[in-house]
């Protein structure tokens, strides 16, 4: 049985990364889609676990050779999804979870229209701003840029399949796990493997 694709987007500061780490720890049948990026690692980020950190030259080579399912430039850095990694994970039966911004999600939707698209919302714009300020290390210009982009991202939430509001982490995690369970029970996914039992 091949795996499923779960494409998760959110404005910066909505808590998506924390949520997805907990989801992956709770659901062993899922595998994180590790993106390539040209941005430097943040504290605690590990090469090959959080991202594949590459130079701009390496990134462009991968892109030009067709090694990326999608790619975007975000906040001055390049991000892209490894075609080989995703294909191999699906073939091994894993559900692949994408942590990806809106433009990348749209690109994936063109290639995989039956993927599951999930948008994580903050409780409010005020909470989003407070979370971004709490990160520290941002200039006022960068904070303003992220808030502006966050508003643009929120305007795209309507076309996603599911919305999860990250107000309480445990509640949001429970909703994410419920979405994964529902997707695993889809008729289109199960019936091809169950129909023989019933003579069809």
Notable features of this structure?
single chain; 200 residues; alpha/beta; Rossmann fold; five-stranded parallel β-sheet; four-stranded mixed β-sheet; 9 strands
Proportion of β residues? 15-25%
Name the overall outline. globular
Going by CATH, what is the homologous superfamily? Answer: P-loop containing nucleotide triphosphate hydrolases
Please give the domain count.
1
Low-confidence stretches: none
Count the helices. How many? 8
The structure class reads alpha/beta
So what's the CATH class? Alpha Beta
Question: Rg, please?
Answer: 18 Å
Number of strands: 9
Would you mind describing this structure in some detail?
There is one protein chain. The chain has 200 residues and is α/β, with parallel strands linked by helices. The chain has one domain: Rossmann fold (3-Layer(aba) Sandwich). It has 8 helices and 9 strands. The strands form 2 sheets. The chain has a 5-stranded parallel β-sheet, sandwiched between helices. A 4-stranded mixed β-sheet has the order 4-3-6-5. A hairpin with a 2-residue loop joins strand 5 (68-74) and strand 6 (77-82). Helix 1 crosses helix 7 (169-184). The radius of gyration is 18 Å and the shape is globular.
In short:
The chain is an alpha/beta fold and 200 residues long.
Topology readout:
Layout: E1 5-9, H1 16-26, E2 30-32, E3 35-37, E4 51-53, H2 56-64, E5 68-74, E6 77-82, H3 83-91, E7 95-99, H4 102-111, E8 116-121, H5 125-135, H6 140-154, E9 162-165, H7 169-184, H8 187-194
Helix pairs in contact: 1-7, 5-6
